[in-house]
Protein: Tripartite tricarboxylate transporter substrate binding protein
Organism: Alicycliphilus denitrificans
Amino acid sequence: MRPILKTLLACVAASAPFLASAQVENYPTKPIRFIVPYSPGGSTSTVARLVGTKLTEAWKQQVLVDNRPGGSTVIGTHALAKSPPDGYTIMLVVNSHLANGHLLKNLPYDTMKDFTPVATLVKTELLLDVNPTVPASTLPEFIALLKDKPGQLNVATIGSGSVTRLISELFLMETGTKAVQVSYQGTPQMLQDLMGGQVHFIFDTPATTLPFAKDKRLKPLAVTGPKRLAAFPEVPTFAEMGLPEIDMSVWFMAIAPAGTPKPIIAKLNAEINRILALPEVRNALALQVMEPYISTPEEAARMLRAVYDQYGRIIARAGIKLEQ
């Protein structure tokens, strides 16, 4: 029996690479779960459903968007970390995923080691908006005002680990100014108080800013990124104004559990990139003042590491603590 057993084991070992290759080549053969660690209805769900629908059409396998809100995205992220690394569970993350790694203690996963990037999806820049009554019409005038009144102006943000808090701290550090941080649970109340004069400035996305800027209810002074936005051609970039260090954007990325086979990651990446280049997808994103963010898995990994390190420096330097 021993020789026969050895022969069988040898046959199994020899066939394993071919079975693995077939699994990758035939992938996907069953539905894919696309976790979104937020409540339904927001831009994260919209983008996930947009991409998921196109993946379903292309591969004839259902891509199921699974909203798992709660715990500052920890509930959904932990569900991904526990999933088999087989390509059948992926998740959409945004900036706060990286901030959580610095702010939240005793996470049930390692932010950088337990996941692998699949593809960047979309990005949008951030605008510095001020209340129209603020006596500054340009970025230099506003910085001068902050220096003239240190700690007397308020900046609204959405929580410790939000991109709005991180970029506001970066702005204050790079300009050598001070302002009072006022935290909000969500964007609507933050905008209401900005336009009502309870706070003086915010950093927000172009999609949110646009209707209020048209009505002159807020005043955008500068935008992050390498170029001016088509929706705000009159608003200069921070780089144009001599402040290239103030560079931060909102981005969405698809990630998978660490250990997911590289050929499956590559297949997902290639198909998602094809989808992002479709005219109808680009048009749908443009309605939200978002643009496709196309990259290889390797480029996505480098971006993830660079941004994680940047957030760590800002959080440490500004002494940001998790709000209870």
